[in-house]
Amino acid sequence: MPKFLSGLMGSVSDLFFPKICQGCGERFETGLSNILCLSCLNSIAAYEDPVCSHCGMSLPPGAFEDAVLSRCRDCGDGNYHLDQVRAVGPYEGPLRIAHHGFKFEGMEALGGILADKMVFSSPPAFWEGVETLVPVPLSPERERERGYNPAALLAFEISRAKGIPWRLLLRKTKSTRPQMSLTREERLKNPKGVYCPEEGAKVPSKLVLVDDVFTTGATLEECAKSLKEAGGSWVGAVVLGRTPRYF
Ligand SMILES: [Zn+2]
Ligand SMILES: [Zn+2]
Q1: Ligand with the closest atom to the CA of 50
Q2: For the segment 7-30, what is each residue's pLDDT rounded down to a tens digit?
Q3: Overall pTM > 0.70
Q4: Which of the ligands is closest to the CA of residue 23?
Q5: 2 and 99 belong to one structural domain
Q6: How many independent structural domains does the chain possess?
């Protein structure tokens, strides 16, 4: 179709099917696909420092002044396989709307914009020396059902932005129920022992796991455990959104 005609068709369709922002309810022309206006998209802000050195939760200024470990109350002094999580922000508002469109409404094209938010919400020191990005795998059945793995799409986009290779180093050995549909106790048990490295995979020393939403951290913790048992020495994770409570 000639350019002037497609432009005209666009204005006609905007007239009859205006884009209404799911964040603020206002009509808009420029924004994230047809779901968020530019102002709501730009309101997705990164967690501000100080953040917990383990789970990435943002805490009030001065929270770690007298602390030995700069961790939030939920992480305490526990031993974890996962070394550091960075998240764009709490899983709510425009971030949740954008994620929903990306994961459940077939808007895979949003992956690049969301991955950019993940890159810019993590300080340069977090990425230093990272050899490989590892998406959290879906079970083969779930991936067939959905047609793609949202975490792999984000890893691909982050890899492009940061110049760090990504690899499907882990596989999921059996299907589990979606974490977000479970109680907290069930979430902690659900992913136990279901992730393992791909056969014959050589696991580098410094890795970053990529996932979309952090609920209890149990899935990422299992993935980190499996990577460390296979040779990884530092395993971080970067996620889009996290539910406000860690455990
Ligand atoms: Zn809006
Ligand atoms: Zn924490």
Answers
A1: 2
A2: 555 555 666 678 899 999 999 988
A3: yes
A4: 1
A5: no
A6: 2
One domain, residues 120 and 210: yes
Range of the domain at 1: 1-43
Pair 23, 36 in one domain? yes
| C-alpha of residue 87 to centroid of ligand 2, in Å | 12
Ligand closest in space to the Cα of 70: 2
84-90 and 234-242 as β-strands: parallel, antiparallel, unpaired? parallel
> What is the C-alpha to C-alpha distance for residues 175 and 14, in angstroms, rounded to an integer?
42
Residue 37 Cα, ligand 1 centroid: separation in angstroms? Answer: 4
Assess whether 54 and 89 both reside in one domain.
yes
Interatomic CA distance for residues 20 and 28, integer angstroms: 6
Q: How far is the CA of 32 from the centre of ligand 1 (A)?
A: 10
* Top-confidence residue, 139 or 225: 225
Q: Helices (DSSP H) in 77-129: which residue ranges?
A: 93-104, 111-120, 124-127
The radius of gyration of the chain from alpha carbons, rounded to an integer in Å, stands at: 19
The verdict on residue 247 lying in a domain is: no
Give me the mean pLDDT over the 29-53 stretch.
87
Distance 247 CA to ligand 2 centre (A): 9
Per-residue pLDDT at 179 = 63
Return the pLDDT at 247. 39
Phi/psi for 239 (5° steps) reads -130, 165
Distance 180 CA to ligand 2 centre (A): 19
Q: How far is the CA of 119 from the centre of ligand 1 (A)?
A: 23
